[in-house]
Amino acid sequence: AQTVTQSQPEMSVQEAETVTLSCTYDTSENNYYLFWYKQPPSRQMILVIRQEAYKQQNATENRFSVNFQKAAKSFSLKISDSQLGDTAMYFCAFMKHETASKLTFGTGTRLQVTL
Amino acid sequence: EAQVTQNPRYLITVTGKKLTVTCSQNMNHEYMSWYRQDPGLGLRQIYYSMNVEVTDKGDVPEGYKVSRKEKRNFPLILESPSPNQTSLYFCASSYPPVDGGAYEQYFGPGTRLTVT
Fold first, then answer.
1. Which of A53, A105, B54, B91 is the least buried, fewest Cβ under 10 Å from its Cβ?
2. Nearest-5° Cα angle at A108, A106 to A109
């Protein structure tokens, strides 16, 4: 079974600064996908970024980028130029290639962006 | 607009009173899932369905039932709700991508259930 660990329950960052959220996972699979989801106070689950394990290049989406270290089973999210609207709960998630219907989530990191 | 809808959005009920949370998607997706979210535990999968009449248990199926009679609908049934089923519930759907990449899950808005 896969496990996903987010060791930072809460984090805080000042507006315009950069913050990195940590995620590690455990799996014996070689072909899988990793995701970061954002959950603002509205509770909606919003996909932030995804990474295919077979791709060595780190994924980027505007101000969001990941540092994917496959050997270390690490998948951190970097948010640059933080904005007040980034305040949310962030979940790291894992999906095996064969199980398209199942995401395994971490416990989440609550990020507060301050003025 | 492509979306996943859930009803009701909020529900307060009493122990033992059967309830159904509906989930519907308009994207013709084959795969659908139910998750529950609890503080400190993240989201955990309850049940999933790979197509009409094909369902299987997730990580926390006890106390729940599902059915998939139509492709677009995937209701979650609590036959005899208990207080430990108080949670935030999400329905999600997904479809095999044409480029062979990751299956993106589309989430509904969530249903806040309180069982007293």
1. B54
2. 140
A53 Rama sector, left if φ>0, alpha if ψ -120 to 50, beta otherwise: alpha
Count of CB atoms within 10 A of residue A53's CB? Answer: 20
- The answer to whether the beta carbons of residues A89 and A20 sit under 8 Å apart is no
What is the spatial distance between Cα A91 and Cα A99, in angstroms, rounded to a whole number? 19
pLDDT tens for residues A59-80?
999 999 999 999 999 999 999 9
What pLDDT score does A97 carry?
A: 79
Contact B43 A91 (CB under 8 A): yes
Angle at A100 between CA A96 and CA A101, to 5 degrees: 110
Distance from CA of A45 to the nearest CA of B (A): 6
